[in-house]
Write a structure and sequence with these properties.
With about 180 residues, this protein is α/β, with parallel strands linked by helices. The chain has a single domain (about 1-180), classed as P-loop containing nucleotide triphosphate hydrolases (Rossmann fold), CATH 3.40.50. It has nine helices and five strands, in the order E-H-E-H-H-H-E-H-E-H-H-H-E-H. The radius of gyration is 16 Å and the shape is globular. The N and C termini lie close together (about 10 Å). The structure holds adenosine-5'-diphosphate (ADP).
Length: about 180
């Protein structure tokens, strides 16, 4: 099973990705988590990514592609994966399509978790990450609408999109996603 999770910051895609990964027994690949590890280890990628993340900007595609490609090469990805936080731009989506085709693999489904913006602002306000201060959050949401939201249409046209109403308790959202994948 190869799944992509889409949704605004705070929509709950990370939480759901983690639950689904355990359930479907495939790795959960969060590019945000991968970048935070790089930063913790002060790697060249981490040092480059740090400023962008702090500012609520997207890390440049060239860096992201490098990070993702390395992770996809790990043997645990051979049976599938749940991508959380990638792709985030149309060019990342095109890159992913090309890469998977080259590996004779394809995306099975794209799950878009839809949550009202006011609810999102409330959720992010109680999170403790350094890029969750109100100004940066606002900027990340703007970036999401400009760069990432167009992916909904992109995957709709590819016939892969599943729309999920994310305004419900965690377990209910998981159940909705699993039903949509049947
Ligand atoms: P959230 O889903 O709450 O925005 P993430 O943990 O997915 O948080 O990402 C945190 C930050 O990492 C993003 O704001 C961005 O700066 C960077 N990032 C993660 N994935 C990508 C990506 N695919 N392309 C560009 N930047 C990314």
């Amino acid at each position: 099973m190869r799944l992509i999770m889409l949704g605004a910051p705070g929509a709950g895609k990370g939480t759901q990705a983690q639950i689904l990964a355990e359930y479907l027994k495939v790795p959960h690949i969060s590019t945000g988590d991968l970048l935070r590890v790089e930063i913790q280890n002060s790697t060249p990628v981490g040092l480059q990514a740090m400023e962008y993340i702090r500012a609520g900007e997207l890390v440049p595609d060239s860096i992201m592609i490098q990070v993702l490609e390395e992770r996809l090469r790990d043997p645990d990805c051979s049976e599938g994966f749940i991508l959380d936080g990638f792709p985030r731009t149309l060019s990342q989506a095109r890159y992913l399509g090309t890469t998977l085709r080259r590996m004779k693999r394809e995306i099975d489904s794209v799950v878009n978790i839809d949550v009202d913006q006011q609810l999102i602002l409330g959720r992010l306000a109680i999170r403790q990450r350094t890029d969750d201060d109100p100004k940066t959050v606002k900027h990340r949401l703007d970036v999401y609408h400009r760069e990432t939201a167009p992916l909904i249409d992109f995957y709709l046209r590819e016939g892969l999109l599943r729309h999920i109403d994310g305004d419900a308790p965690e377990d209910d959202v998981t159940a909705r996603i699993l039903r949509s994948l049947d």
